[in-house]
Amino acid sequence: MNILFTNHLPNRVGTACMAKQPAEWLNKIEGVDAKYIPTQLLKNNMFFDVVVFAKQCDVNVLRWAKNKGMKTVWHACDGMFYNFRDDVLKNKEYLDGIITTSDVYKKTIKEIGFKDQMMENIFHHHCNFNNEIPEFRDKVKKIGYIGCSDQLHKQEKFKEFAKKRNIELVIRGDKDLRYHDLDIGLAYIDPESTDYPNLADKENSWQERINSRPNTKIVNYMAYGIPSVLTNYPSYKLTEEKAKNCSFLVENFNDYTLRLDYLINNKAARLKMREICIENRDKFHIKNISKDFAKFFEKVLEEK
């Protein structure tokens, strides 16, 4: 089975997570040859069994691949709600499959118009490939968020919260994946916010984003044994079903601060959650998630 991952942004962190790393680990599976090639470097004489579009889906390449007899899959994530979505929708007959993040996401994209594509929920892998275990601290010194800063809403309130409790709030971009010094992991999105200009659909745009996002944050915190308090994404809820009690999932900011305070003041609870995280993290290691990719691609290939 010959797999191509592609998009036009080779240097993005998201491309590493959604395309380059899965391709690398798929290559470790017998009978699979996978690679990442940027869209702009593809040549007309190339052929692959399956072409996977990582977030960005170029409809010209989509049509090219399908017309040459290749199967096509969109690993869309929240790319489903960016401006290029409408172009893909107009060319949906060229698309065979979509990798989804939850059943809520499946329902949403069917309502958008992708009704005939094969769909599969596939968990995002964590980034702790070597299964490192950071030191546990009796007292909380740092709470933090790692990722695109626009996914931690109410930052001034978080700063106030941390200052009152004499702990440090750390906010790092997605190019600085240092988890080792965090005692509690954060991620909070206000679904009522309208401040996200790149989405195709403006109405309830953050709620759509919440419904589409993968389980990246929860599994990365889990991988390092870090208890977390997170906005209740459907993909996080799905993760919690597979690894119960590794995180607190909340609906509003008031509940968020209550849960955060509970962890800050309860060493035993943090230690217990840490043990659960470490016990379950292998379920989301890329060596296992890559097998889920392979199974889905085989199903797509078998579909007439």
Instruction: Using the 3D structure, state the CATH architecture of the largest domain.
Output: 3-Layer(aba) Sandwich
Query: What is the class of the largest domain in the CATH system?
Result: Alpha Beta
One letter per element, helices H and strands E, the order comes to: EHEEHEHEHEEHEEHHEHEHHH
Considering the protein shown, what is the CATH homologous superfamily of the largest domain? Glycogen Phosphorylase B
Structural class: alpha/beta
The tally of helices reads 11
Task: Give the percentage of residues in beta strands.
Answer: 15-25%
Task: Specify the helix fraction band.
Answer: 25-40%
CATH topology of the largest domain: Rossmann fold
Largest sheet: 6 strands, parallel
How many individual domains?
2
Strand order of the largest sheet: 2-1-3-4-5-6
Task: Give a structural overview.
The protein is α/β, with parallel strands linked by helices. The chain folds into 2 domains: 2-125 and 285-302, Rossmann fold, CATH 3.40.50.2000; 142-283, 3-Layer(aba) Sandwich (Rossmann fold). Helix content is 38%, strand content 16%. α1 links the parallel β1 (2-6) and β2 (33-36). The chain is globular. The protein starts with a strand and ends with a helix. The model is unreliable at 197-201 (pLDDT under 50).
Keywords:
single chain, 304 residues, alpha/beta, Rossmann fold, 2 domains, six-stranded parallel β-sheet, five-stranded parallel β-sheet, 11 helices, 11 strands, 16% strand
